[in-house]
User: Which sequence fits this backbone?
């Protein structure tokens, strides 16, 4: 639980910045915080760290990003503790519980529904996914 909080604190307290990847005439690449200005350089901007704001100055986008980070941290903790939760992706479920024993899939105009079956000794557990996202489970 500490690592996700430390990562969140680092992102929130450190200023966001954009970097520029510049290439000179010989093909040598350099990363810098200002645009490529030397004659003969080819440059493109890369995002080195996304900006995280309180949301008040950008009409809620910062708050949405903060909620996304919190959601990611909750799922990260669930995977680390071998648990599942609604909204997890297939990859997160596999990292948490491993590969399922079998998958029952139905595809229609509404999308793809999957039932992942985990046989655990004398009983089975089921995870239900819609279009690759966990919606529910059954013990």
Assistant:
């Amino acid at each position: 639980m500490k690592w996700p909080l430390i990562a969140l604190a680092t992102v929130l307290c450190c200023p966001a910045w954009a970097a520029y990847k510049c290439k000179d005439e010989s093909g040598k690449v350099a990363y810098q915080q200002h645009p490529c200005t030397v004659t003969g350089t080819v440059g493109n901007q890369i995002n080195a760290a996304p900006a995280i704001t309180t949301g008040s100055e950008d009409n809620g986008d910062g708050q949405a990003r903060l909620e996304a980070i919190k959601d990611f941290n909750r799922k990260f903790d669930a995977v680390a503790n071998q648990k599942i939760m609604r909204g997890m992706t297939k990859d997160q479920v596999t990292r948490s519980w491993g590969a399922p024993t079998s998958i029952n899939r139905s595809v229609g105009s509404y999308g793809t529904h999957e039932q992942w079956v985990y046989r655990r000794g004398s009983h089975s557990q089921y995870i239900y996914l819609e279009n690759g996202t966990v919606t529910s489970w059954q013990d």
User: Anything to note?
Assistant: The longest strand covers residues 111-120. The beta strands are 18-23, 29-32, 42-47, 102-108, 111-120, 123-130, 133-138.
